[in-house]
Design brief:
Helix content is 37%, strand content 15%. By secondary structure, the protein is α/β, with parallel strands linked by helices.
């Protein structure tokens, strides 16, 4: 099936009632038919039918082997990190969500997991950073918030030649636009709170592996069962409902984002626009080659930090708020919000500064959004 059909129907099988919507199974435990017999469901932390339906749908969308639905994007990232052992080395993109960097630097560094941050769009830099102890390359592409594009296929080859895994945070594009597992990645993860939910009302995370029954999948299953980061059945049902409109939402958001990015390039107070769908983006051709769309995120710089901060207070339609991917457009100030705890040297390396704003384009009319930006920029 194609993506739109998977998003609408997933792996849904009709029960005796013919219900179109998947039931919500709120049971924490399940009755056994007899001794050493099971319906396939024993205890809700291990498996739940509603969550299982969501996981199957995500596996189909990712063209993967198995998916785990979790309580947040950070829970999914944490499970990836839990695959590592003391003395292991990780190569990270130097432009990442700040929470990922915090988890690596403040938590896992205490367990002797070493991190190196490089520009993962530069294969020479990645190759130079590899060590005998490297066990994971972890990237975002496009990255948050500087929209750096890394070559998934080439990085997968580098990782595998070094005996390491490649994990891709695909939050910015969703599986509707980009499928890292088909390009050689071993793991793909999402903050499901963002585009997969799309309504700013569910906190969720997803982790998908390429193969269903290999050692990596079994390792993850043991970690998930043991640590219990599972998504609740009610939230799983809400996510199933949200997936049904994923394609129509993200395609509309991407089309509007491209119009806004092109408009921003013409604005006298805007000094730089970062959007993978602009031919001016240095990795535009790579983005076209490894994804089917450009996403709804646009970052841009203005002339001064003072102007950036004034814009945030002038907005009328767009909300000044953290997060992204919802039907409502949001403008974020990464320097003091999403990336406040990012080490200064990483922000300098990527040129993330106090003049940068990050726009998550929603489903409002494009003209209305540009009118709001215009009055905020040019007052």
């Amino acid at each position: 099936m194609k993506d739109f059909s998977i998003e609408v129907h997933g792996a849904h099988a009709y029960d005796a009632t013919g219900a179109i919507s998947e039931p919500i199974y709120l049971s924490a435990t399940f009755r056994h038919p007899g001794f050493r017999q099971s319906t396939g469901y024993d205890y809700g932390r291990v498996a739940n039918p509603t969550r299982g339906e969501l996981e199957s749908a995500m596996t189909m969308l990712e063209r993967g082997g198995r998916t785990w639905a979790m309580s947040s994007g950070m829970a999914a990232i944490n499970i990836v990190f839990m695959l590592l052992s003391a003395g292991d080395h990780v190569i990270f993109s130097n432009d990442l969500y700040g929470g990922t960097v915090r988890l690596a630097n403040e938590i896992y560094a205490r367990y002797d997991v070493e991190a190196t941050y490089v520009d993962t769009s530069d294969l020479t830099a990645v190759r130079a950073a590899l060590r005998p102890s490297t066990r994971l390359i972890y990237i975002e592409t496009p990255s948050n918030p500087m929209m750096i594009i890394s070559d998934i296929r080439a990085l997968a080859d580098l990782a595998h030649d070094a005996g390491a895994l490649l994990a891709v945070d695909n939050t910015f594009l969703s599986p509707h636009f980009q499928k890292p597992l088909t390009l050689g990645a071993d793991l793909v993860l999402h903050s499901g709170t963002k585009y997969l939910c799309g309504h700013n009302d569910v906190i969720a995370g997803f982790l998908t592996v390429a193969k269903e029954h290999d050692a990596l999948a079994e390792h993850i299953q043991r970690l998930v069962v043991s640590s219990g980061p599972n998504l609740s059945s009610m939230d799983a049902w809400l996510m199933l409902r949200s997936l049904k409109t994923l394609g129509v939402r993200v395609e509309r958001q991407a089309a509007t984002a491209k119009r806004i990015a092109e408009w921003l390039e013409t604005q006298r107070h805007v000094t730089q626009v970062y959007y993978p769908g602009l031919p001016s983006h240095p990795r535009y051709d790579l983005q076209c080659a490894q994804a089917t769309g450009f996403g709804g995120m646009v970052s841009f710089k203005v002339e001064s930090a003072e102007l950036a901060q004034e814009i945030l207070g002038r907005l009328k339609l767009i909300a000044f708020a953290e997060s992204l991917g919802g039907v409502e457009s949001l403008l974020t100030y990464p320097k003091v919000q999403t990336h406040a705890e990012m080490p200064e040297e990483l922000m300098k390396a990527t040129e993330l500064d106090d003049k940068l704003l990050r726009l998550s384009v929603g489903l409002e009319d494009a003209e209305d959004l540009m009118e709001d930006l215009d009055q905020a920029l040019n007052r």
